[in-house]
Write a structure and sequence with these properties.
By secondary structure, the chain is an alpha/beta fold. Helices cover 33% and strands 18% of the residues. It has eight helices and 13 strands. The strands form three sheets. An eight-stranded parallel beta barrel has the order 1-2-3-4-5-6-9-12, surrounded by six helices. Keywords: Cytoplasm, Transferase. It is found in: Cytoplasm. GO terms for molecular function: 3-deoxy-8-phosphooctulonate synthase activity. It catalyses: D-arabinose 5-phosphate + phosphoenolpyruvate + H2O = 3-deoxy-alpha-D-manno-2-octulosonate-8-phosphate + phosphate.
């Protein structure tokens, strides 16, 4: 597949990486538009193809009292408004078979969470919507095994699949990114590096996932050097008070400098 398969995606001929970026979860309309407007301004300046990311609900939570969303339809309508207001594509993750058809009415890319990427019925349901399907590599899976997830999408009659690496479990409370997997997975489908989730520190005693946002640029630089097709970065204007994944998100104020640096590296790599 090519980036032409994503409606409203700009700068696809800029020879830049593309970017999936936004908050972990949709907390409300004002916050979603505030973040999206800021990222659009930056990506327009740098000519980065941009897809706004926001989860309409969060099903994988450590504790029963963790934030899960503001209501499915309400959040999906906000995603659609972001798309229509700013003329950009959007992506959200789905967790159940019934989510696929519902979410496909509002967004351009359906994302399969890492813990669910082996769920054949879910992957097939996403594929059958005809949308681009972003398959997040399970923290427990090898890069080579993602060939089969991509093949499920194709066998369902959809050639529009991406792979996203979000790190591999290293013990109980840490992740590592094995950059040898990037070229392996790129042989199967366009490959994205989920920078912020790769820096999660799950399974904390508190029941709230930790993170290492100070390492975001380190991981992102390595991804660009190793020719990832896209980057996935969660960002928020107030990570400390974000309702989900605040511990590993990038503060919105730091995004422009980071992307400037990464675009410079990309241009250098493209000349080699």
């Amino acid at each position: 597949m090519t980036l032409n398969d994503v409606p409203k995606l700009k700068y696809i001929h800029s020879d830049n990486f593309f970017l999936l970026c936004g908050p972990c979860a949709i907390e409300g309309e004002d916050m979603a538009l505030r973040i999206a407007e800021r990222v659009v301004k930056i990506t327009d300046k740098l000519q980065i193809p941009y897809i706004f990311k926001g989860s309409f609900k969060k099903a994988n939570r450590s504790r029963i009292d963790s934030f899960t969303g503001i209501g499915d339809e309400k959040a999906l309508k906000i995603l659609k408004k972001v798309s229509e207001t700013l003329d950009i594509p959007t992506v959200t993750d789905i967790h159940e078979i019934s989510d696929a058809e519902m979410a496909a009415q509002y967004v351009d890319v359906l994302q399969i969470p890492a813990f669910l990427v082996r769920q054949t019925d879910l992957v097939v349901a996403a594929a059958k919507t005809g949308k681009v399907v972003n398959l997040k590599k399970g923290q427990f899976m090898s890069p080579e095994s993602m060939r089969h997830a991509v093949q499920k999408v194709k066998d369902a009659g959809n050639t529009k699949a991406w792979i996203t690496d979000r790190g591999t479990m290293f013990g109980y409370q840490d992740m590592i990114v094995d950059f040898r997997g990037i070229p392996t997975m790129r042989a199967f489908a366009p490959t994205i590096l989920d920078v912020t989730h790769s820096l999660q520190q799950p399974n904390q005693m508190s029941g709230v996932t930790g993170g290492r946002p100070d390492m975001i640029e380190t991981i992102a630089r390595a991804g660009v050097v190793n020719h990832v097709d896209g980057l996935f970065i969660e960002t928020h204007f107030d990570p400390a008070n974000a309702k989900s994944d605040g511990a590993n998100m990038l503060h919105l104020d730091y995004l422009e400098k980071l992307l400037n640096n990464l675009v410079t590296i990309r241009k250098t790599i493209n000349t080699l």
